[in-house]
Design a protein that fits this description.
By secondary structure, the chain is mainly alpha-helical. The protein has 21 helices and 9 strands. The chain has helices at residues 6-9, 29-35, 54-68, 129-134, 178-181, 199-215, 223-233, 236-240, 243-248, 251-256, 259-271, 283-289, 293-297, 321-328, 338-343, 349-360, 377-396, 421-430, 436-458, 463-466, 473-476, and strands at residues 2-4, 17-20, 23-25, 40-41, 101-102, 110-111, 142-146, 156-160, 172-173. One of its GO terms (molecular function) is oxidoreductase activity, acting on the aldehyde or oxo group of donors, iron-sulfur protein as acceptor.
């Protein structure tokens, strides 16, 4: 079932539809359903999924699980030095280690421990997103990691915090990535703690994400909250809100980091209460409505990528020109992780450049972070590969947060992955002869159709000058600071 909340019913542009708690589709889909007076869509299945070659499917699955798969974003080395691992990287999402527990697990704490590759039954321990996203204070509240149906990479936090019931939301819940941590970022002085250091961030975000689910709001990949911060810190609200409305909003709660401010803020957005609620119309709309001008678009901390009002998503900090090209091709934040999964794998630069040469014809396809070099043919191939793989994964319903299997955690494979695995699974499931080259061509057709449809809707063929635009701050940014854009 996919359902909308009050935000969709009230035609809020930044609204979504919810399929299950913490699983939603955004980008205004809630408002589209609401405009049709459609509250929910229910689908009841009556048959299983036909598999052409079950034995081959099982063999491929075992191969993937024991030799190829890593952690969230297919990071293939642990975040801490471990006895089995040749390499480690503190930024890796393979966070399992000795002494790190699911602190609120049923029956008592469960240690994540050292999880060397090879054992399929322990893959789900590798990723620990509540601590990764929210810090050590989240450990005591974490029940387990969960995820999308049947996915072995458990990237969804599941927490139990009895205290959040005081704010009128369920004590359980969780999410991953931005939805896990964005809600308390609006507090200029940080969220107020309750009992332990930094527990205000954990508690405040569980309240926020449960409210987001209930109302069916969408954060535009964190841009909603950055827009709020910009408008508050720059005095925009004081300028555009009617005096009576401005006076009734509890700005003192905001300054104090009081979670009750989040409750009131989200209620106003979902129910279109007052001028403030237009914040959920989206960045392009508020820039026009509130006359924000170039100062808004060019403000680096606001992280707006496009003058159409969508934000960065692994852009110029992610292989420079590669991430930049990828982000220009779509009509919202690009939701493409093909390149960032490779960049963030945790393997040393020398190995990554060797893999880049094998894939794109030259080591010069891959730059060291913060040490970017001019564009070249290999980088163009790298960018094209990134785009086509996300189109393919969206079409065949594979997760681009894990796929493709570009690299491997196994030293015995020289850390090489298997980029033909999609084609192998496709053949096993459908029975249709398939090669990776055929799938790449299908993905290219999908991408071409997407661009053609954009041309049709915009009524212009000049994509370079009218669509593929970048906000000015990107060109003024010190390359040495680029890494701080990574989300």
């Amino acid at each position: 079932m996919a359902a909308i909340g009050q935000a969709g019913e009230n035609l809020v542009p930044l609204s979504g539809m919810l399929n299950s708690r913490n699983h939603s589709g955004g980008a205004g889909t809630g408002a589209i359903m609401g405009s049709k007076n459609l509250k929910a869509i229910a689908v009841e299945g009556t048959k299983g999924v036909n598999i052409a070659d079950r034995q081959e499917m099982k063999r491929l699955n075992d191969y993937m699980m024991t030799e190829l798969i890593g952690a969230n974003n297919n990071h293939v080395v642990p975040s801490t030095p471990q006895s089995w691992a040749e390499y480690s990287d503190p930024k890796s999402r393979w966070t399992a280690r000795k002494g790190l527990f699911w602190g609120a697990a049923e029956g008592g704490p469960i240690e994540t421990g050292e999880i060397p590759p090879g054992n399929q039954n322990t893959v789900g321990f590798r990723t620990y997103k509540s601590v990764f996203d929210l810090g050590p204070a989240a450990e005591k509240y974490t029940v387990k990691m969960s995820g999308c149906h049947s996915c072995p990479i458990r990237c969804m936090t599941q927490m139990n915090i009895p205290r959040v019931k005081e704010f009128g939301v369920p004590s359980t819940g969780g999410n991953t990535c931005v939805a896990n941590f964005v809600h308390t970022t609006i507090f200029p002085n940080g969220p107020k703690d309750f009992e332990d250091k930094d527990d205000g961030r954990v508690i405040g975000n569980l309240v926020g994400l449960n409210l987001f689910d209930d109302y069916g709001l969408w954060c535009n990949y964190g841009q909603l909250h950055r827009d709020f911060t910009y408008c508050y810190s720059k005095g925009v609200f004081k300028r555009v809100l009617p005096a009576e409305e401005y006076a009734e909003i509890r700005w003192d709660q905001l300054e104090a980091g009081d979670v009750n401010f989040i409750k009131d803020f989200y209620y106003r957005l979902a129910h279109r209460v007052g001028e403030l609620s237009h914040l959920a119309d989206g960045s392009y709309a508020i820039a026009e409505r509130w006359n924000l001008g170039e100062e808004y678009w060019g403000y680096a901390k606001n992280k707006l990528w496009s003058p159409f009002g969508y934000p960065v998503h692994h852009v110029n900090e992610a292989s420079a020109q590669v991430g930049s090209i990828v982000n220009c091709m779509f009509n919202r934040d690009c939701m493409t992780h093909t390149h960032i999964n490779f960049i963030g794998s945790g393997l040393p630069l020398k190995l990554q450049r060797e893999v880049a040469k094998e894939l794109f014809g030259s080591e010069d396809a891959y730059d060291e972070t913060k040490n970017y070099t001019p564009i070249n043919d290999a980088k163009i191939k790298y960018a094209k590969w990134s785009l086509l793989r996300v189109c393919l994964h969206n079409a065949v319903t594979l997760c681009n947060w894990v796929w493709p299997m570009t690299v491997s955690p196994l030293k015995s494979r020289n850390y090489r992955g298997d980029l033909a695995l999609e084609a192998k699974f496709f053949k096993a499931i459908t029975g249709e002869e398939m090669t990776q080259e055929k799938l790449d061509l299908a993905a290219e057709r999908i991408f071409t159709l997407h661009r053609a449809y954009t041309v049709k809707l915009m009524q212009t063929k000049d994509m370079r000058n009218e669509h593929d635009l970048i906000c000015s701050w990107v060109f003024d940014k010190d390359p040495g600071d680029a890494a701080n854009l990574l989300i």
